[in-house]
Write a structure and sequence with these properties.
Order of helices and strands of chain A: EHEHEHEHEH
Distance between the termini of chain A: 12 Å
Distance between the termini of chain B: 60 Å
Number of domains of chain A: 1
Helix content of chain B: 40-55%
Strand order of the largest sheet of chain B: 15-19-20-18-17-16
Oligomer: heterodimer
Structural class of chain A: alpha/beta
Shape of chain B: elongated
Structural class of chain B: alpha+beta
Shape of chain A: globular
CATH architecture of chain A: 3-Layer(aba) Sandwich
Radius of gyration of chain A: 13 Å
Largest interface: A-B, 48 and 50 residues
Number of domains of chain B: 5
CATH superfamily of chain A: Response regulator
Largest sheet of chain B: 6 strands, mixed
Number of strands of chain A: 5
Number of helices of chain A: 5
CATH topology of the largest domain in chain B: Heat Shock Protein 90
Number of strands of chain B: 23
Chain lengths: 121, 649
């Protein structure tokens, strides 16, 4: 069975790009349009990895990461933030919230896949 | 149109989405800008505009639309200044933003191929840049900068030239230089330019991936203060970030795998494994669909048996076997409530840590069984109640000691079966409900309640939609999606919620739900020659109608006086002589029916799967004579405020 990845971004085109890259590598992908929707979906099933944008309406990415880490079933799921924002302070907040890594947008599809492969195995 | 230098293989599919989305975003931005009041700009509107522009920039970057990135970038800078209130919004900002939006539209049209020439963006870009720095003396912004990890040590002279250069642009502070391979150079700098200007200088010496710039909020205007915050000092990263590429890992993949192997297997996994190991010989796994099908078939059999009995007299053997079979099949679907309870100790532990409380959880009756479908549906309401108990019910250890109670609070969870119902209680020994605060909140929200109303009525208020006495919204509870949702969810299950509280001693919430959703106890009534089914849980009483108590009220239909209350009337049949009073969520209504037929158990058949959803009808059942009877959705009928009387169509 292929690994499942939750892709969270309020920008539909960005979400589709990330999803397509991952689907192209054989992962099954579910999409969510903001942190709150992602949290709902993540409670219904356990994904093998989550890639989330930071700046989103309703619930931002770092808050989502913190909320997911509070769920026992997400103890050991890699949570990667994908954002155009790469300030050190924000990253530190992401790290403290429990993010596994921080990836800058625009991203290189090959590098994203390299990272994902390391963390879903 | 030249093919864009897209980062993503076949960009065609995304371009379409991007164009459409960018148009939507720009439309929304324009709308927001047009209603923006420069005197008192709405913060949420500014954030919305910022987010829309930010979205366009991000996707444009992926698709290689560099000119769109460049323009949206300066727009973002301006919007950032405005939303952080670094200076007041002016009419000029709004005008420039509107015109810039038009240029972005043209840029997109050009990329789409529907506009012949790339629009000139230089003029508007310059104008927006000027606005970023507008507002009297150019605002100095403070950035903390980290360069690194360095691929190799920089030449000392180059580094010095860069630092000197920055010192002439602005105020340079507290450089920390670790100029070796893998090391970092950090410093803070305040200058008049924007992040882009700073970056362009830094890029002369190090590659863009090694530059991290953080804008420090609350930047001093004009002159920097000497006591400015130090750049954030991060602890040494355990794993080095990947050498290039704007990816930073907070945990290395190998450490991650190690951790996962060590403690990683979740309790539930282990439990499943244990069950598998033990249960290979004595149990099998069956899909839920198969079980549901079995329940359905047995339901049909029960109906057939009833039909046979009606036509040919009783077959005692057949009746007994059918009943036993039905019970046995329902038992397969039963799951011990420990399936839900088992998650609470961990939840309580985490919540207590988060809120700095000492909490112990005690559970009883975990082996009580209820229907699998029911288990799924009560999980959320119960979770909410447990969270409430820890977050709002229990006090901090200090407050508890001050009140003469043990520092450690207790949450009790218990379940038991009473007849055809399961009763679950969530109780805590915390502070209890605050009567005066609830009354104050009710007054504030304009709810009618007498100040001397009995406790029972006061407690009912917290079930009102949006009612919350919590001042600070935590991410756990107190969002106003509170007790009303709990009560609604429980009502949907045909259950009810009761509440008891004593100030200083704690509160208790009791939830009772039927054992199963597949079979309900029901009252059957006749109207217009048809049979209708009312869930017994919602029936309050049935009574003979005295015509004098039935009144018409202009514009409000008819009401029936039952003792002190005037109930809205819904007439199902022809007769006006018999009324059944039904209740849902504390609201009552009277249904006028032609006859009362009796009480019996009915097997619930979903109308939505077999037909379609009908307002006022929750499901259907098949009666002993083989005819279909509709089960009325009392909640819907009772809550039809101002929509006139409900009538079966």
């Amino acid at each position: 069975m292929s690994h499942s990845i939750l892709v969270v971004d309020d920008t539909r085109s960005m979400r589709k790009m990330v999803a397509t890259v991952l689907q192209g590598a054989g992962y099954s992908v579910e999409e969510a349009g903001d942190g709150a929707e992602a949290l709902e979906k993540a409670k219904l099933r356990v994904f093998d990895l989550v890639v989330t944008d930071h700046n989103m309406p309703r619930m931002d990415g770092v808050t989502l990461v913190r909320a997911l880490r509070a769920l026992p079933q997400y103890d050991h799921v890699a949570l990667i933030v994908l954002s155009t924002e790469t300030g050190a302070e924000l990253k530190a907040r992401g790290r403290e919230a429990g993010a596994t890594g921080w990836m800058a947008k625009p991203f290189d599809p090959q590098k994203m896949l390299d990272i994902v492969r390391q963390f879903v195995a | 149109m030249k093919p864009p230098a897209s980062r993503i293989g076949d960009a065609g599919a995304f371009q379409g989405i991007f164009f459409e989305e960018a148009d939507e975003h720009l439309g929304a931005v324009e709308k927001l800008l047009l209603v923006l009041d420069p005197a008192a700009p709405d913060a949420e509107a500014l954030n919305g505009i910022f987010r829309a522009v930010h979205s366009i920039k991000g996707s444009a970057g992926m698709l290689g639309f560099e000119e769109i990135v460049a323009l949206t970038h300066v727009l973002e800078n301006l919007l950032d200044v405005l939303r952080k209130k670094e200076r007041a919004l002016t009419r000029a900002d709004v005008d420039a933003l509107l015109r810039a939006g038009d240029v972005v539209k043209l840029q997109i049209a050009f990329r789409r191929g529907s506009h012949a020439a790339a629009p000139d963006k230089e003029a508007i870009e310059a104008e927006v840049r000027a606005l970023v720095d507008a507002g009297g003396a150019p605002a100095r912004r403070r950035f903390s900068v980290t360069l690194g990890p360095l691929a190799e040590a920089m030449e000392g002279a180059t580094l010095q030239t860069m630092l000197d250069g920055l010192a002439t642009m602005g105020e340079l502070e507290s450089p920390q230089i670790n100029n070796i391979a893998g090391g970092e150079v950090r410093f803070s700098v305040s200058l008049a330019g924007g992040e882009a200007d700073l970056k362009s200088v830094l890029e002369l010496v190090v590659s863009p991936e090694q530059i991290r710039i953080e804008k420090t909020d609350g930047a001093p205007r004009g002159t920097p203060t000497p006591s400015a915050p130090q750049p954030p000092v991060e602890p040494a990263r355990e794993p080095a970030p990947l050498a290039d590429s704007g990816i930073e890992l907070f945990t290395s993949a190998s450490a991650w795998r190690e951790r996962r192997r060590a403690g990683g297997r979740r309790e539930s996994d282990r439990q499943i494994e244990r069950e598998r190991a033990q249960g290979d010989a004595s149990s099998i796994r069956v899909s839920v669909e198969k079980l549901d099908r079995l329940v359905n078939l047995v339901g049909e059999l029960v109906i057939t048996e009833a039909m046979l009995t009606q036509q040919h007299g009783a077959f005692p053997e057949l009746s007994r076997h059918t009943r036993n079979l039905q019970e046995a099949v329902m038992a397969i679907r039963m799951v011990p409530i420990s399936a839900v309870f088992s998650r609470f100790p961990r939840l309580v532990r985490e919540l207590s840590q988060r809120f700095g409380k000492e909490v112990e959880i005690k559970m009883s009756g975990e082996t009580t069984e209820l229907d699998r479908g029911m288990i799924e549906k009560i999980t959320d309401p119960l979770t909410h109640l447990v969270r409430n108990a820890v977050d709002h019910g229990l006090e901090t250890p200090e407050a508890r000691r001050a009140a003469g109670k043990p520092a450690c609070g207790t949450v009790w969870l218990s379940a038991s079966q009473r007849g055809g119902s399961i009763v679950i209680e969530v109780r805590d020994n915390g502070r209890g409900l605050d009567r005066s605060r609830i009354l104050a909140k009710a007054a504030q929200r304009g709810m009618a309640i007498a100040p001397d109303a009995p406790d029972r009525e006061v407690w009912q208020l917290i079930f009102e939609p949006g009612f919350s006495t919590v001042d600070t919204v935590t991410d756990v509870s107190g969002r106003g999606v509170g007790m009303d949702v709990v009560r609604r969810n429980i009502h949907v299950l045909g259950g009810k919620v009761d509440l008891a509280s004593k100030a200083g001693e704690g509160m208790s919430v009791t939830v009772s739900v039927p054992l199963t959703l597949a079979i309900i106890d029901a009252m059957t009534v006749g109207a217009n020659g048809k049979t209708y089914v009312l869930p017994l849980a919602s029936v309050v009483e049935s009574l003979k109608v005295e015509p004098a108590k039935l009144r018409s009220i202009a514009g409000h239909g008819r009401t029936l006086r039952v003792r002190e209350d005037y109930l809205p009337v819904h007439q199902l049949g022809k007769s006006e002589s018999i009324a059944v009073v039904v209740e849902s969520e504390g609201t009552r209504a009277a249904l006028l029916v032609d006859e009362l037929i009796g009480q019996q158990q009915v097997v619930v058949k979903s109308l939505e799967t077999n037909f379609r959803k009908v307002p006022g009808i929750s499901a259907a059942t098949i009666m002993g004579d083989g005819r279909v009877a509709l089960i009325l959705d009392t909640a819907h009928i009772v809550n039809r405020q101002g929509e006139g009387a409900w009538q079966p169509s």
